[in-house]
Design a protein that fits this description.
500 residues, single chain, seven-stranded mixed sheet, nine-stranded mixed sheet
């Protein structure tokens, strides 16, 4: 796990004069006539006789979002370089936390090979600057023989003018822990499926549990069969690497609420007998993103000592075609007794999730949050950066609103009653897919709803697009695993701890 060493410092001429940083990072806004220095940059501007914005403009700086311009200080500052990163346009005179987070990420990505940075973006928003810097600096080079430039090693963040030193230290601690949990998630997603499969995922989860004082339980294929987890067993039956079901829990001395987390853990998804096209199948190494996210979220709950009982239920399977694979036309008896006719073996995620959701409800949680790279229909409907959020109306809207506030961009989606009849089966209680392509994301949500305990507030977050970036880097997001929706889950847990 690669996380820069992060610390707080003062934003003063004296601090800049004695800094050991190689680079001073400042923010610029996109003004009508060129770049405008953002809050926090005034001290550096003084060293340039108040003309820093003019000098940057001559180098092509505009303040456009994520634009990076570097300027040698020529001895005007102890640091050798000023890095100006664009925040974009300020709405009503203010920048958002996400603008700061993306700018910090873009700056950190450009600082590969740099030992230390003095970051003034934290004057705008400390938490966003810390998260953006830590996540922007992330690299995954475990499988490269040549590692390239090392990521930014250290960052000193100037303390905001408002608030106390104690509050700033608490914010730094929380933001660092959140970034670390996102990075845990990214590392798991980016690990190739020949090294990350149900048993090895379980081993990594056990190590994380032991290191963070968490409860840990794993059910192997024999225990799953004895207890009747037909969905997990059906999906995992085609692989030589048998499935698992994990339970990882944080339980403080006093807990105000119980929150159950469930995450889809298909460590590789070929589609099974209903095999996927070859093009892009390598991206299906990311089909365990939901499992990685909820595991990292329980670790985060322990690190930040949330006054909540938080338990992750993680179904793990590899969906492969073989002589022992489940088939279209099979009927599976799920955990809890409901039966499902399999019409498409590539709609496997909802089968493993259903088993885990029923198991999670046995512990009588107050809330259930479930996340998965579930449907290609999510990407068709909402694109690669906006997750679909479904579930019980009030909790769905609460989660979607928080997801937007974190910058992870969720959108509340309905569960139309008229689509439910399309999941009726001629043989079983329900089928795993409809007979048409319309509303595929919503139909998957309706399927999962059948396995939610009566009256349990529930949110389903479909991150099929947002969990894995197949394009170029942007903001604090590189190629590969993104860690979405860890920051959302963290914010929801904090909100439940605060408001119930």
């Amino acid at each position: 796990m690669t996380v820069p060493k992060l610390a707080l410092t003062e934003n003063t001429e004296a601090a800049l004069a004695k800094t050991r940083a190689d680079v001073v990072v400042i923010g610029t806004l996109q003004g009508e006539d060129g770049p405008v220095l953002a809050a926090g940059a005034a001290v550096a501007d003084t060293a340039f006789d108040g003309k820093l914005a003019e000098v940057l403009a001559t180098l092509g700086a505009t303040g456009k979002a994520e634009q990076v311009v570097k300027l040698p200080t020529l001895g005007k500052l102890a640091a050798g370089v000023v890095l100006a990163v664009g925040l974009g346009k300020a709405a009503d005179g203010a920048v958002t936390a996400e603008q700061v987070r993306r700018a910090a990420g873009a700056a950190a990505r450009s600082l590969a090979g740099t030992e230390r940075a003095f970051v003034t973006l934290s004057a705008l928003d400390l938490q966003a600057a810390v998260e953006g810097t830590a996540l922007g600096a992330y690299t995954f080079t475990e499988y490269r023989s040549s590692k390239g430039d090392a990521p930014l090693a250290k960052a000193d963040f100037v303390s905001p003018e408002d608030g106390t030193a104690r509050e700033h230290k608490a914010t730094l601690k929380a933001a660092t822990a959140i970034a670390e949990s996102v990075i845990i998630t990214r590392d798991l997603i980016n690990t190739p499926p020949n090294d990350l499969f149900p048993a090895s995922f379980a081993d990594r989860a056990k190590k994380l549990a032991e290191d963070n004082g968490l409860d840990f339980e794993v059910l192997d294929e024999k225990q799953l069969k004895r207890k009747g987890f037909g969905g997990i067993l059906g999906v995992g039956g085609g692989s030589e690497r048998p499935p698992r079901l994990l339970r990882v829990g944080w339980k403080p001395a006093k807990a105000s609420k119980r929150v159950a987390l469930v995450g889809k853990g298909i460590t590789f998804d070929s589609g099974g007998i209903s095999i996927k096209p070859a093009a892009g199948m390598d991206h299906m190494t990311s089909d365990m993103s939901g499992a990685a996210a909820v595991l990292a979220s329980v670790v985060l709950a322990a690190k930040l000592k949330y006054p909540l009982e938080v338990t992750a239920h993680i179904p793990l399977a590899e969906n492969l075609p073989s002589g022992s694979s489940y088939r279209p036309g099979d009927v599976l008896t799920m955990y809890g007794g409901k039966t499902v006719e399999v019409l498409n073996t590539d709609a496997e995620g909802r089968l493993v999730l259903a088993d885990a959701m029923v198991r999670a409800a046995e512990e009588n949680p107050d809330y259930l949050i479930e996340t998965a790279t579930l449907t290609g229909a999510q990407v068709v409907a909402l694109g690669n950066r906006t997750a679909g959020v479904m579930g019980s109306d009030e909790f769905r809207d609460r989660v979607a609103g928080i997801m937007q506030a974190t910058g992870e961009g969720g959108w509340a989606m309905p569960l139309p009653e008229e689509l439910r009849a399309d999941l009726d089966s001629r043989l079983a209680d329900l089928a795993n897919v409809t007979g048409h392509r319309w509303g595929g994301m919503l139909a998957a949500g309706l399927f999962l709803k059948e396995f939610v305990a009566e009256g349990l507030p529930w949110a389903h977050i479909d991150v099929a697009g947002p969990a894995f970036n197949t394009g170029g880097p942007w903001g604090y997001t590189g190629k590969g695993g993104t860690g979405v929706p860890v920051r959302t889950i963290a914010a929801v847990l904090a909100d439940i701890a605060d408001r119930g």
